[in-house]
């Protein structure tokens, strides 16, 4: 099958991970939320997640100073909210109030959980060495919460250019081919 050159600065269209998440934070009595697509799992034990947080975002300073956040996983019913949160800055807007979201106290971090999201992960910054160079924060997930239904939620996955893919069918037919021991270091 023929292929065209694909611009290297557009590889995110294929490789961008999902799902889109909402990152909540708290600092000096204020809370905030940002939409985030650029994250990656970096370990299981401990549970590490690397997050790209642009230094122009209000969340950047709030999270760098508090060294904490919550990663919340929204589903398709929150799609308009996810875009709205991404289009506004916590410098001028109280996003919990504007988007009618419920802040729930975390167990181990001061950043609030977003009740309306399917899952919530309390995180602590464990490595700040990549922040200045790459705007990448390495967090350890110290506590997690997830709804029991639906088992496979309809999460949002960003394709660039304002397009989302909504999580589709989950299949088990390849399961017997797996060698689970090859998936971990
Ligand atoms: C679909 C989507 C994905 C986004 N992904 C990221 C991301 O990975 N990292 C980032 O820094 N900003 C990302 N943004 C932009 C922030 O959400 C946006 O700048 C936000 O308004 C920052 O809010 P704050 O200034 O209150 O922190 C994304 C926005 C959208 C709509």
Description:
The protein is 16% helix and 32% strand. The protein is an alpha+beta fold and 185 residues long. The longest helix has 9 residues, at 58-66. The chain is globular and about 55 Å long. The protein starts with 11 loop residues before the first helix and ends in a 19-residue tail after the last strand. The mean pLDDT is 94. Residues 20, 32, 34-38, 52-54, 57-59, 83, 86, 88-90, 158 line the site of flavin mononucleotide.
How many beta-strand segments? 11
Helix content: 10-25%
Order of helices and strands: HEEEEHEHHEEEHEEE
User: What is the gyration radius calculated from CA atoms?
Assistant: 17 Å
Largest sheet: 7 strands, antiparallel
Number of helices, where a helix is a run of at least 4 consecutive DSSP H or I residues: 5
Bound molecules: flavin mononucleotide
Distance between the termini: 34 Å
Given helix and strand content, the structural type is alpha+beta
Regions with little confidence, pLDDT below 50 for 5+ residues: none
Shape: globular
What brief labels describe this structure?
single chain; 185 residues; seven-stranded antiparallel sheet; two-stranded antiparallel ribbon; 11 strands; globular; binds flavin mononucleotide
How would you summarize what this structure contains?
By secondary structure, this protein is an alpha+beta fold. It is built from five helices and eleven strands. The chain starts with 11 loop residues before the first helix and ends in a 19-residue tail after the last strand.
């Amino acid at each position: 099958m023929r292929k065209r050159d694909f611009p290297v600065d557009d590889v995110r269209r294929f490789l961008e991970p999902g799902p889109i998440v909402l990152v909540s934070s708290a600092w000096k009595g204020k809370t905030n939320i940002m939409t985030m697509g650029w994250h990656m799992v970096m370990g299981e034990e401990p549970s590490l997640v690397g997050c790209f947080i642009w230094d122009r975002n209000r969340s950047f300073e709030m999270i760098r100073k508090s060294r904490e956040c919550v990663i919340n996983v929204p589903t398709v019913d929150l799609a308009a909210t996810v875009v709205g949160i991404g289009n506004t800055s916590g410098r001028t807007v109280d996003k919990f109030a504007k988007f009618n979201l419920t802040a729930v106290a975390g167990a181990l971090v001061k950043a609030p959980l977003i009740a309306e999201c399917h899952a919530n992960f309390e995180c602590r910054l464990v490595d700040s060495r990549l922040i200045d160079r790459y705007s990448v924060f390495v967090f350890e997930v110290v506590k997690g919460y997830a709804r029991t239904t639906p088992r496979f939620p309809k999460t949002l996955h960003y394709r660039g250019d304002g397009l989302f893919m909504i999580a589709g069918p989950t299949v088990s037919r390849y399961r017997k081919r797996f060698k689970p021991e090859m998936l971990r270091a």
